[in-house]
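The instructor's notes for this session suggest beginning with a concrete chain rather than abstract definitions. Hand out the sequence below and ask the class to guess, before any prediction is shown, which regions might be ordered.
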Amino acid sequence: MEKEFFDDFQIDKNDYKEDFAKCDKLTADLQVEKFDLDKYRDKNLVFSSELSDSQNILNKFALKEIGKELAKEKEYEKLILYLESLLENSYFENDYYVYRQLAIYYLRTRPKRFDKQLEIIKKFFKSGIYCSHNQYLWFSKKLFELRDRGLTTDEEILSYTKYFRENGSLNKFNENFPVILAERIYKKHNGYVDIDSEYSYERAQMRQELEFIGQQFKNDGDYESVIDFYNGVFEYTDFDSIRMYDNLISSYEQLGDYESMLDTLSILFKKNYIRGETNKIKFSKKLDFVNKELGTSFTINDLKEYNFKQLKRNDHAFNTSDSKNKYIGKKDINPETNVKDSNVSTHELLFKYAELYEKGLLTREEFEFMKKQIFSQQINNPDNESQEVNDLNNNKDLKSSNNNNRPVYKKFSRDYIVKTIITVGRKNFYNLQKFNIGDKILAIRTKKSNPINMRIVDIEGFVTVKSPTDNIIKISGNNYNYIKSLEPGDLIAVKTKNRPGSVILEIYE
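After discussion, reveal the predicted structure:
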C-alpha cells in the first residue's frame, strides 16, 4: 500500500492543546462523586445551558446507560422504543450514537426488522449529522448488506452517501455540541465517569477504520492485500492492535507463509496485547500449529524474549543472526564470496540469493550480478548438478507408477535466465505444479486487477497427476507491478517457502 494512502491517518497532538485543557477541567469536575444510575431514573433529562458542563455530561451518560441496561436484559422491544425517543432528545441532536444503536438492535428482534434498519440509516444520512469516516464506512456497509437482500439499490445508496458527503460531512464543527459525543463518555473501574479527549477519540476512530479496511480484504479472501495493507499500517503509521495482528497471522496461515506467521506471533506476544483466556488459548494454538509446520518447538516465552533456538527442521535452521528473524536455509550462502557451494544446485543457489535479496541483504544490482555469475559457472560446468536432486531422482519411493498418485520429483529440462523470482503461497504453488508445459496462467494482485498473461515453460519439484483447480495465481503488489513492467518473452521463476522446486513462466501478450 502506498505511503500517500496513510497520510489521512496522521494527526498532530499539538493541535488539541485547548481540548486537553478543557478535558482536564471536566475530569476534575466529574470526580466529585461516583456515578449512581438510580439518581437519574424517571427524570426528564434534556440539555440545559443552566446546568454545568459536567452535569450535562452526566445526564447524557445516564441516558446512554439506561439503554445499555435494557440491552443487557435483552428487552429489545423496550430498548427500541427508548432509543427512538432519544432521536428527538437535545443531548443527541448532533450525535450519530442513537442511529447506530437502532441500526444494530432492529436486527436483534424476532423477526429481524431489516426495513426499519434501512429506514434509520437513510434517516441518518439525511440528518446532516457529522460522523467520522470510520462510522461512515460502517453505515455504508450496512446499506450494501441491505442491497444484497434486495431492499435498496446501488443508485439509492449513492444518493444517500452523496447527500452525506455534501452535507453531514461538513458539520464536524457541531460534533460535540451541545454536549460531547456519547462515545467519548465512559465509566471507569472506580465508579467515576470520565471522558476521552478529542485527540484520543480521533485516534480510536482511525484505528478502527484501519481494522475495518483490513477486515474487508480478509472477508474477500484477498490475503495478499491484507498483508500488504497491514504492513503499510505498521510502516507508515503508529497504529496497531490485536485485531490487526490476528488478521495478519490468519492471512499468512492461509498463504502457507509460516515463517512470517511466526514472526508476527512473536511481535504480538512481546507486546502483551493478548488478554482474556479465550485469546490466550487461541494464539497458543496458533503457535502450536506453526511449530508443527516448521518443525520447531518455540514457547511463548521464547517469542516474548526473542530467545530463538537453533532448532533444526530437515536441513533448515532458524537463523538468529538475521535481524528480521527469517527462516532461511542452513547451508551457508555467502554473498561476499560469489562462490557456489558444490552441494547446492544452480536453482537452489539462485533461490538462496533471492531470499537474501528479499530480506534486503542484497540490492537488486547485487542480485542481478549474482545471477549472471551463477549462470556463467553453470555454462562452464554443465555437469555440476546438486547431489540432493540426483538422490531425489534416483529414489524409487518418490516415483509414481500407473497404480498410485505418489508424486514424482521432476527436474528442469535445462537452466533458465529469469528476470525475477517471486514467492507465492503454497496453495498457489501446488496448483501451478499440476499444470502442463504450455498451459496459460493469469497473475493478478486483486480480483479487480488486470491479469498478466503468462504460460508454463518448465516445472521442477514434486509433481502430481491431479488436475489444477484454476489458472489464476495471486501475487503481492510489488511483484505484480514489477512483472507488469516486463516484456513479452521474459521469464520469471515462481517458488514457495519450505518446499523444493519452482515453476518457470513466460510473459506473453
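Then share the key points. The longest helix spans residues 198-219. The first strand starts at residue 185 and ends at 187.
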